Amino acid sequence: MDTVSPRLFTRLALATALFTFGLIVFGAVVRVTDSGLGCGNHWPLCNGTIFPPLDNITAWIEWLHRLFAVLIGLLGLWTLLVAIRAYRQRNRAVLTVTVVAAVLFAVQSALGAIVVRLELPPTFVTLHLGTAMLLLGALLLAAVWSAYRPPARSGGTMVASLAYITTALSLVIILTGALVRGSGATLACTDWPLCNGQVLPFSQGQLATIHMFHRFAVLGLGITLLILVWYVFRHRAGGARTLAALAFLSYLAQAGIGALYVLTSAAPLWGAAHVGFAAATWAMLVVLSATEWLGSRESVVSSETRWNPQSEATS
């Protein structure tokens, strides 16, 4: 069993990450259809019952979202048990990040209950989505670290730094986007790229300022992503180039759909797709950062081996 556990773990971690991505998109559907309180402020029950009425669509959307989360919890528990068996005596980084993912799932579930109980306060809605993204990132890290073996490389250390910075910025725009939705600032700017005809709409009130801050964050991510792609194509090959290109394409889709979301007066389809492509951008950048971290660590080990050729003999 132990010989197959690492491979099983990688598959389970990827499957849990994929379902978590689906849960994030489903959560966006809950928000854009105003189904967040479809079960009232009851949790874990739905309006005081286990199953919602058949004719209450918003309640069923919220109830299915909760059921989806429970299924991910069970899959995640299986992943954690396999990680303990496969990695408790080797590659403790994989076990550690899997435990972190389990903790993040528990925190996310608690935040989901708080969001419902307190009737969708913007701060907790933002934290709820942010924790879901961190959970997705932790699962992807675990999967990559358990299976990826970096090739020999030289130079291009700037790629790793840019990957880390760009990944962090992608999380920032997700959080600001959640704040835009949670605070009711979605249509505070009714045109695009300007905000009601202004670049800096500070005189239009807090909601317009929140909305425009999100757009500036998106622009900042685009610039750093473009620089990252340029460096990756100069210093990396194969999978790294694919990840960087896919991240940039997901970003372009996210930005374009964000504009459509405003111009169509917040059509639910575009809202859910906007979150989905933002999550995809984040996921690609997390995987790229994970591979760069492994590559940087491998380079350090190789360098130490070259400078200390007697280290193995004397150890």
Supply the key terms.
single chain, 315 residues, mainly alpha, 2 domains, 0% strand, disordered C terminus
Describe this structure in words.
By secondary structure, the chain is an all-alpha fold. The protein has two domains: 1-147; 152-309. It is 75% helix and 0% strand. The chain is built from nine helices and no strands. The protein has helices spanning 5-32, 57-87, 92-117, 122-147, 157-182, 206-235, 239-263, 268-307, 311-314. Helix 4 runs antiparallel to helix 5 and helix 5 (157-182) packs antiparallel against helix 8 (268-307). The longest helix is centred in the last third of the chain and has 40 residues, at 268-307. The protein is flat. 41% of the residues are buried.
List the helices and strands and how they pair.
Blueprint: H1 5-32, H2 57-87, H3 92-117, H4 122-147, H5 157-182, H6 206-235, H7 239-263, H8 268-307, H9 311-314
Helix pairs in contact: 1-2, 1-4, 1-8, 2-3, 3-4, 4-5, 4-8, 5-6, 5-8, 6-7, 7-8
Summary of the model, kept short:
This protein is an all-alpha fold and 315 residues long. It contains 9 helices and no strands.
Strand content: under 5%
Helix percent band: over 70%
How much is the radius of gyration in Å?
A: 22 Å
User: Mean pLDDT across all residues, rounded?
Assistant: 86
Major beta-sheet overview: none
Q: Number of helical runs?
A: 9
The number of distinct structural domains comes to 2
Number of strands: 0
Structural class: mainly alpha
Unreliable segments (pLDDT under 50, ≥5 consecutive)?
A: 300-315
What is the molecular shape?
A: flat
N-C termini distance: 32 Å
Q: Write down the secondary-structure element order.
A: HHHHHHHHH
